[in-house]
Write a structure and sequence with these properties.
Elements (H helix, E strand, L loop, with lengths): L1 H9 L8 H21 L1 H5 L6 H12 L12 H74 L45 H22 L6 H17 L2 H6 L4 H9 L13 H29 L6
Helix pairs in contact: 2-4, 2-5, 5-6, 5-10, 7-10
């Protein structure tokens, strides 16, 4: 019965009480019973407790169940006092030891949780780094065709250094250059393909890699990066007019003349073919902004240190 009672007590909510409080209660019980024993010395102990030191000594002996036998209760009153103090001592001492174990368990659990979180974060960061290295290859190609698409045909091509003057894209280029989107890239690997074909090919590949990264890397770890990538995918899909522009390759001259002779403001108009080129221009701006910010955002994450 006593064991069951103690187990029930240990299950109470005050398990979260700091161990030092139970220790204080334990010491307080010793002092209180020492004073009671000294006060009732003649009745309960035949006057053997003559001073406070003897009373403290007997109280400690009783609550710790040492029982040396040099001082014994002589009547029912003394026996009752010993029983009460012994039971209280067992209960409070049990609570004290349990509180220590509980506090240590909480501390260990917190450390394990932090360690697991650190390991999970590091693994996720490694996944991000691998995904970024792959996407970087796609982004480099995308930037190449951004530059080609905004460069007149007679200036296209790669120099001896493998890069050349075509890596000079600026987002505010003269939109009239878009009249040559159906001209050859002048790049050896894509010499037979038009600039617009290659641009949309690399754009779709880049977007597919970003979607793959979003599925394989827990981007919610970095909300700003997740929002940045999702916004790019969402906005780029709105501006993607690849089906129409690639279909118009069959009538290149009409597209050329439209852009060449367009002198009005370069913006969206109701039911006008110029809208497809306006979307392309805005898509190119969006891709450029994404490229500039993607490297910065991922580099900051990959090289950051975990805060303890």
């Amino acid at each position: 019965m006593l064991k069951q009672g103690i187990q029930k007590l240990l299950k109470r909510k005050y398990l979260n009480t700091p161990p030092k409080r139970f220790l204080a209660v334990f010491v307080l019980i010793i002092i209180i019973f020492a004073l009671i024993d000294l006060w009732l010395s003649k009745v309960a102990f035949n006057g053997k407790l003559t001073n406070f030191l003897d009373a403290i000594y007997f109280s400690v002996e009783t609550i710790t169940t040492l029982g040396y036998g040099d001082i014994c209760p002589s009547g029912s009153t003394g026996k009752i006092l010993v029983i009460i103090e012994s039971l209280l001592g067992i209960i409070v001492l049990g609570l004290f030891l349990n509180a220590i174990a509980h506090s240590q368990a909480i501390k260990d659990n917190e450390e394990n949780t932090k360690e697991a979180a650190r390991n999970k974060y590091e693994e996720n960061k490694r996944n991000l780094e691998r995904a970024t290295s792959i996407i970087s290859l796609r982004i480099e190609r995308l930037y190449l065709y951004l530059s080609i698409l905004s460069t007149p045909p007679n200036e296209r091509g790669i120099g001896i250094d493998g890069r050349g003057p075509i890596y000079n894209y600026t987002p505010k280029f003269d939109y009239h250059i878009l009249k040559d989107i159906y001209a050859p890239t002048m790049i050896m690997n894509d010499i037979s393909k038009t600039a617009i074909e290659c641009f949309f090919r690399e754009f779709h590949r880049t977007k597919d890699e970003l979607v793959r990264m979003a599925l394989n890397v827990n981007l919610s770890t970095w909300p700003d990066l997740e929002k940045f990538i999702i916004n790019f995918i969402r906005e780029s899909e709105k501006l993607d007019t690849s089906d129409i522009l690639l279909l118009q390759q069959n009538n290149k001259k009409a597209a050329y003349d439209l852009i060449e002779n367009w002198d009005d403001e370069f913006k969206y108009y109701p039911s006008n073919n110029i809208n497809n080129f306006v979307s392309l221009y805005k898509l190119m701006e969006l891709c450029y902004d994404f490229i500039q910010n993607f490297y910065t955002a991922t580099a900051n994450i990959i090289h950051e240190k975990i805060k303890e």
